[in-house]
Amino acid sequence: MIVHTVKLTNRLGLHARAAAKLVHLAGQFSAEITLALDGESVDAKSILGILLLAAVQGSDLTLSCDGVDEDSAATALTDLIESRFGEPE
Amino acid sequence: MHLAELTDPELIFPDIKGSDGDGVLRELAERLAALGHVRKAEVLFQRLREREELGSTALGRGVAVPHCRLQGLSELLVAIGVCRDGIDFAAEDGEPVRVFFLVVSPNNAAAEHLHCLAAISKWVKNGRLPRLLELEEPDEIYRWIDDSND
After folding, report:
1. How far does A15 lie from chain B, in Å, by closest CA?
2. What's the total number of domains in chain A?
3. Which chain B residues are Cβ-neighbours of A47 within 8 angstroms?
4. Which domain holds residue B137?
5. In this structure, are residues B83 and B16 in contact, taking their beta carbons and an 8 Å threshold?
6. How many domains does chain B have?
7. ipTM entry
8. A47 touches chain B (CB under 8 A)
9. For residue range B26-55, what is the model confidence (pLDDT) as tens digits?
10. Would you give the distance in Å from CA B93 to the centre of its chain?
């Protein structure tokens, strides 16, 4: 299992469109993927779960990937978050 | 943040007639303008449309959260529109949308907006929606939302 912390840097935080992108990408991997913040851990393949986190800009998210493609899942999801979901700020 | 704190019986519309996504968004915008919560229905409708064009705000389980920011708004508001027949709103799970939580935020309210979406998600995730669909009056729906917050 891979566990690491990713800082959320986009200005709007984990809003609905960013969450949809994250869920869509997570769904492409067979690994179990969770995101956690402030003690709450949610399934990264569920948009209802992701939105529950209410993660604002600057949040330190704990990303956990567990499964045969955990390496590529962790890399792809970290890249998405660190690239601010393709948002300009 | 609790869902009941964000809405009001006046903002609950249990009888939305629209037969497609645009029709529902337009009707909700017109109702909010008629109540004086927003100045121009057309401006709100266009903002909501622009957001949907970026990707559907359907969350699955028959729920969507159309939303936008609007200048001049004093506080975030949540209107609830129930469309009993269900609307194709391009949900990932393919479910028609029956309940629309319309979220209109003032500028510079990013954190409040996120907490509002979290409150809606939690409520839906906790399985509170089916009961709402059995209710017909705005006051009853509001009471259920208030009672089922946890």
Report:
1. 6
2. 1
3. 59-60, 92, 121
4. 3-147
5. yes
6. 1
7. 0.91
8. yes
9. 999 999 999 999 999 999 999 999 999 999
10. 19
